[in-house]
Amino acid sequence: MKSLSHAKRLTQCYESGNVWCYYDADATNSCGCGSNCYHYEYDEDENTIYGVCNGCNKEIYKVAPEDTDKWLSEGKWLNK
Ligand SMILES: [Zn+2]
After folding, report:
1. Residue 38 host element (H or E)
2. Per-domain residue ranges for the chain?
3. From the CA of 36, how far away is ligand 1's center (Å)?
4. Regions in the chain scoring below 70 on pLDDT
5. Which domain of life is it from (predicted)?
6. Is 78 within 8 Å of 17 (Cβ atoms)?
7. What's the farthest any 2 CA atoms get from each other in the chain?
8. Strand partners, 52
9. Strands (DSSP E) found in 1-80
10. Is residue 69 classed as helix, strand or coil in its secondary structure?
């Protein structure tokens, strides 16, 4: 049974500790809630980074495995 607490999730943040948000300039993101901003969360168990909607916290997509290291080298990844 998988925990729903996301205890091993790390959120990509700026050096300041604020969550690093991305915006779709000309479209709402694909989750369907109407938000156009999202952030990245790294799941340590799965070694996978997810794009997560800021509006409703839904996982929108997975970052390609070959790009994971590149993303992890940017910003600070904090347990929020
Ligand atoms: Zn949403």
Report:
1. strand 37-43
2. 9-78
3. 8
4. 1-7, 26-27
5. Bacteria
6. yes
7. 39
8. 39, 59
9. 9-13, 22-23, 37-43, 48-53, 59-62, 76-78
10. helix
